[in-house]
């Protein structure tokens, strides 16, 4: 008989979570422990040299976090011992076979006990080295599935991907598996093993030529972008995640593999408390740089929807899949986002940012309030680059030509150069998202939501339709991002 709800689904189950020190994974660990304290065990795979190091990482990067405050209050002085009775750190590396687990007895126990696998380990940089992105985002999937194939009790393998693996630029992006692709010039088919061989050969070539570490890093990043665009993806991150999906789809008839594709993930909406965030990603790069006065120009289609989703909604969607995905179902892809259910236009986001920082200006290191104005938004990269020349490149060249004779001249020059570098870097990284004219279908996800009973809809709410974007962004998200920025800046000054 199938479990009747999410708490029953997790009762006495053993869950393996890879990438356990990541932003979403930490929230998932907290939610599972809070939702079902009688979960049997959580194996947390973390990159570490040995077991002791793995335990130290979990203690410092997970156990000490503010998100566990409600569990600390519940268990009082017994919290630490209770946590370690449920959580078992595992030193490993998804880029290696057997997940890099060196302890054979531990690996054997995991194979015998694991019921549910949630694979979240990834490198998320848009300009990651190609060899690194392939090893983690693509081969990591292969190694997780190979490990899962040996798990006698495995019931579900949930792989975290990204909605932007879709290569279409307009229309409705369906919850469909990816298929092999031909290059844009029609000269070659995408072959993952050939991509691995190609990356290894390029790396070996650079090493044999005695290239510096910096040259190797820059070259491998450039190659990642080139290979991605050859086959129709924007960057190495989405390309290698897409190849991971393609590998996973090969096993759908043999193993219970499902994939969740979140859109751009931002701070928590409600749980375990509003506004918790780690790192500045996705729209937060806009928020922080705009608020600091460094970003006066943007690239984007103001009429299009910027698809964002709070982190706790993603976690709840994952738990919904874990508890409701039907055995033997042909559906294996689940989108979780907002562009279909509750779209937020880029123009609305910009308006809210402008309103927020007009009311609550950022205070810089000199103690001055930074004044913001409505940013200049360009609908194409070509016109954006023209503006960059007019507003930055030409003035910078003029300043060099006339000489930087005073400290004021030097400060003005470096401030303008920093603005230019930040603005161009953000535009080049995010144009595939900000100029994207599609929306993400979430029919499969909605189907699962209708399968939940009323209790589970309260325990794991995952419908973005109910988010009030103005209230959430103005009162929760932007304040949370800026608070995080302030903490990090204070830490850097120590």
From TrEMBL:
<dbReference type="GO" id="GO:0102965">
    <property type="term" value="F:alcohol-forming long-chain fatty acyl-CoA reductase activity"/>
</dbReference>
<keyword id="KW-0444">Lipid biosynthesis</keyword>
<protein>
    <recommendedName>
        <fullName>Fatty acyl-CoA reductase</fullName>
        <ecNumber>1.2.1.84</ecNumber>
    </recommendedName>
</protein>
<comment type="similarity">
    <text>Belongs to the fatty acyl-CoA reductase family.</text>
</comment>
<keyword id="KW-0521">NADP</keyword>
<dbReference type="GO" id="GO:0006629">
    <property type="term" value="P:lipid metabolic process"/>
</dbReference>
<dbReference type="InterPro" id="IPR013120">
    <property type="entry name" value="FAR_NAD-bd"/>
</dbReference>
<dbReference type="InterPro" id="IPR026055">
    <property type="entry name" value="FAR"/>
</dbReference>
<dbReference type="InterPro" id="IPR033640">
    <property type="entry name" value="FAR_C"/>
</dbReference>
<dbReference type="Pfam" id="PF07993">
    <property type="entry name" value="NAD_binding_4"/>
</dbReference>
<feature type="domain" description="Thioester reductase (TE)">
    <location>
        <begin position="17"/>
        <end position="318"/>
    </location>
</feature>
<comment type="function">
    <text>Catalyzes the reduction of fatty acyl-CoA to fatty alcohols.</text>
</comment>
<keyword id="KW-0560">Oxidoreductase</keyword>
<dbReference type="InterPro" id="IPR036291">
    <property type="entry name" value="NAD(P)-bd_dom_sf"/>
</dbReference>
<dbReference type="Pfam" id="PF03015">
    <property type="entry name" value="Sterile"/>
</dbReference>
<feature type="domain" description="Fatty acyl-CoA reductase C-terminal">
    <location>
        <begin position="415"/>
        <end position="484"/>
    </location>
</feature>
<keyword id="KW-0443">Lipid metabolism</keyword>
